[in-house]
Write a structure and sequence with these properties.
The protein has 268 residues and is α+β, with helices and mostly antiparallel strands. It is built from five helices and seven strands. The chain has helices at 111-127, 129-137, 157-167, 175-181, 188-201; strands at residues 18-19, 35-42, 59-64, 70-75, 86-88, 97-103, 206-207. The longest helix has 17 residues, at 111-127.
């Protein structure tokens, strides 16, 4: 039975709880990234690049610091960007990044980038503790049957109720305070990181922390300008070296690929 949403309690606006397929954008919202975390430096581009070595160019796989958007960047010639470095990609003298090549999906990340991603995300969550702790202090219902806290892997009804009961006594001052008041909630920072990665993979009903994956990102492709897989193209999605994709800042399409995204085992 379809639930009525008109009277559904709204969650804290700090976290948008966007539903799968919701394309509506907030007026004046800035989805562009200016700072990124380097996840991997690829001296010969992607492993799937079948061009001759002399035609291959270095790439950087990176995570946006604002909207947690995954991107592929063109490095400054002769500069090797150290992994786990935060660098600027805006209109100023760049140290490592020449320009943005395109926004990419989780599946497009190199193996090294996927290994580095949880570490960088945890640093990001800890560095922005004041923002992320509000997710626990102001947790609100998503529907008549589900609370936003239950989006976190391993959080079931009992643990959710424990957090809500403590939040009524006053907002949590930080992760240490949260863990002290709700001892059963182990490593909340890591739970947020796991949830972010699930959202990056796509196929989620709600997107709380990360931008929604775009339909364009589900198209299989090769380096060198060839598109394969589905026969129907989407204009402008075949991003070649030298083109700046002005869509890298926001997930504007409501489509998603067939990617895993389960919440893991619930703990009650």
């Amino acid at each position: 039975m379809t639930e009525e949403t008109s009277n559904r309690p709204r969650a804290d606006p700090t976290f948008e709880h966007k539903r799968h397929g919701d394309r509506k954008q907030d007026a004046g919202r800035d989805d562009r990234e200016e700072w990124v975390w380097v996840l991997d430096y690829l001296p010969y581009g992607r492993e799937t690049d079948n061009r001759p070595v002399y035609q291959k160019k270095p790439l950087i796989h990176a995570l946006g610091d604002n909207k947690l958007i995954l991107m592929e960047l063109i490095p400054v010639e002769g500069k090797i960007a150290p992994i786990h470095t935060k660098t600027h990609i805006g209109n100023r003298d760049e140290e490592y990044v020449e320009r943005v090549k395109s926004r990419i999906s989780y599946d497009d990340l190199s193996h090294g980038a996927k290994m580095e991603l949880p570490l960088v995300l945890e640093d990001h969550v800890v560095a922005n503790e004041e923002r992320f702790i509000q997710f626990f202090s102001k947790a609100a219902p998503l529907s008549m049957r589900q609370n936003s806290l239950e989006l976190l892997p391993g959080v079931g009804k009992k643990l959710m109720l424990d957090v809500l009961e403590e939040s009524k006594k006053g907002p949590f001052e930080g992760f240490a305070d949260l863990k002290a008041r709700v001892p059963a909630l182990h490593n909340p920072e890591k739970l947020i990181v796991q949830r972010i990665i699930e959202e990056m993979k796509g196929d989620q009903k709600y997107y709380v922390f990360a931008a929604q994956p775009s339909r364009a990102l589900t198209q299989p492709h090769e380096e060198g300008g060839r598109q394969h897989g589905h026969g129907h193209g989407h204009g402008g999605h075949n991003n070649r070296d030298g083109n700046r994709d002005n869509r890298y800042g926001g997930g504007r399409d409501g489509g998603y690929g067939n990617r895993s995204g389960g919440y893991g085992n619930r703990r009650d």
